[in-house]
Amino acid sequence: SCARCRSANPQKALMQWAERTPSIMLSRALLLFLIGYQTGGKLQKALRASAEDLLSSFALVRERAALLSIQNYTLIVAGAFLVPAILSISLSFSMQITQMQSGTSFSSAFSENIGLAQSPPSQAQPSVPDSLSLVHAAQGAIPIYLVLNCILISLFISISQGAREKFIHYAILLSLLSQATWLVASGAAFAQ
User: Measured between alpha carbons, how far is 153 from 156 in angstroms, rounded to an integer?
Assistant: First the structure.
């Protein structure tokens, strides 16, 4: 066994170790060390280069994790709070516009006051009952959309975290939050 140790080639040992190790970082450090050894340079420089490579790799990993967590938090806030609130406000505006169409509009009152003939209603615009039915249909479809949106957000977050088993938990929690936000925002918006 000692004779075998004395005749072992350090370059071959480093190469085999680099090929067999499951750690990418260790493999990279061993290859840098091997290159330094083969070129006859000082091993201190090879070790320093390996250390700097490891530090820069760890810094990149930390930066990527930070950016991914910011992206995940943004998706959670958007899916649970912003999207339901924006949809509620938009639907409230649509309802108000539809209600304004059912009454006398400013332009028709202005036209009558100055004696202009009113133009016939355009065929492209839906009637007020049609507009109301569209708003009510959208009001019923938005909760379904919110659930689908939360499912997609949860799938993305669970895959990006490498934890697919958390998908159901994320989907349920986000769906509940978005539905609650929708109910509160739409109740407040349609109460006006």
Answer: 5
Contact 139, 186 (CB under 8 A): yes
Whole-structure pTM value: 0.61
* Amino acid letter, residue 112: E
User: In this structure, are residues 34 and 58 in contact, taking their beta carbons and an 8 Å threshold?
Assistant: no
| Residue keyed to tokens 């990993």 | 61
**Exposed e or buried b for every residue in 29-66, given b needs 16+ CB within 10 A?**
bbbbbbebeeeeeeeeebeebbeeeeeeeeeeeeeeee
What pLDDT was estimated at residue 99? Answer: 80
Tell me the residue type at 188: A
Q: What is the pLDDT of residue 44?
A: 77
CB 165 within 8 A of CB 135: no
Quote the mean pLDDT of the chain: 81
In contact, 156 and 75? CB cutoff 8 Å: yes
